[in-house]
Amino acid sequence: MIGVFRPSYDHSEAAAVAEVLASGWSGTGPRVKAFEEAFAEYCGGNHCVTTASGTAALAMALRLIGIGRGDQVIIPGMTFVSAAHTVMAEGATPVFCDVLPGTLNIDPGSAASLVCSRTRAVIPVHLAGRPVDVGELSRALPGIPVLEDCAHASGSRFRGKHVGTAGFAGCFSFGAVKNISMGEGGALLLHQQEVAARASRLRWLGIDRETWDRTNMDRAYWWEYRVEETGFSCRMDDIHAAIGLVQLKKLDGANARRRQIARRYAAALSDLEEVGLPEEDSEESVSSWHMYRIEAQRRDRLNQYLGEKGISTGVHYKPLNLYACYGRQPRLPVAEAAFSRILTLPVYPDLTDQQVDLVADSIRKFYRG
For the chain, which domains are there? Predict the structure, then answer.
């Protein structure tokens, strides 16, 4: 089978992990710090605080701005469930807005219509890697903190700036099939040093000093630390960070290959009336191409046909308002209409031109016979 996603590893990642294991220190230590510094520099500044997952990064961002019981957080309806779950875990209520046709990113007008006295934040998602215009969103929701969900968007840029740097916080995921693939991991980008310092404490139960830091202290009371607020246990470790350091060096090249694949799909499928293609890159908006998502007529039959040809696909995502766990929710016409058509095609750096052509040719044969 040709998978939808696949991490791109070689001997470099294996060697980096072996070095960590040989060092005898596999917890949060020097490689985590090195990755934080390297990722912050790659993104153009700000402070980076790593976490165990992208979901943990979102949860910490909510805690940093004081989201709690009775608050509401606006989330686009076309995204993964993690953002909504983190809001509910803080005792707040997720409120789902509709999305824009085509990109399926957050619709600022729909979001603005939901603002009330209880609205405390908005979480735009750079879906599939396509950047959201955070400036436009902020103008539509003045005074509302923006927590950017950048899980798909390592390497995405809008007007020359890396995503995750325009709002209060940028929340990244480095899971097994993300553009930076560590197996698992996440990160926060934050503007202020004191906020980043608090995030560093929150990721380790509110403790003010990491174990690695305490090993380098004066031996008098080296074991001592303060705990001034409760936090999470969601630190990244040096094993994952070592993989991340290698993956970060490969990111631009890997994303360039994803872009080539996207252009190859577009060239092969652009004349099919039954298939809607994703927005192409422009000078203003550069996607990481984490996903290549089409809108296809007879989507379910096409999915079955491709599966019979050894080609895996996905659906990203079912609109959040359709899940029972969130209770009765208003309709989201654009998201729900797109849901019946969206199909994610294989895209990852090691996908060959021949495999891309096989996918495209199979889609053409399905519609043209």
Answer: 11-248 (3.40.640.10), 251-368 (3.90.1150.10)
Predicted model pTM: 0.95
Phi-psi region of 336 (alpha: psi -120 to 50; beta: other; left: phi over 0): alpha
d(CA 133, CA 96): 18
**318 is known as an active-site residue:** no
The side-by-side arrangement of strands in the sheet containing 169-173 is 47-51, 186-190, 169-173, 147-149
| pLDDT average, residue stretch 69-90 | 98
Q: Which of 119, 67, 128, 71 is CA-nearest to residue 97? A: 119
Q: Nearest to residue 163, comparing CAs of 130, 210, 196?
A: 130
Residue pair 175/243 in contact (Cβ under 8 Å)? The answer is no
Tokens of 300: 């379910």
DSSP letters of 255-295?
HHHHHHHHHHHHHHHTT-TTEEPPPPP-SSEE---S-EEEE
List, for residues 115-134, the tens digit of each pLDDT value: 999 999 999 999 999 999 99
- Helical residues (DSSP H) of the chain, grouped into ranges: 11-23, 30-42, 54-64, 82-89, 108-112, 134-140, 193-202, 211-215, 238-269, 299-308, 333-339, 353-368
- Rounded distance between C-alpha atoms, residue 42 and residue 275, angstroms: 36
CA-CA distance, 75 to 84, in Å (whole number)? 7
Catalytic residue among 33, 161, 178, 318: 178
pLDDT tens digits, one per residue of 20-65: 999 999 999 999 999 999 999 999 978 999 999 999 999 999 999 9
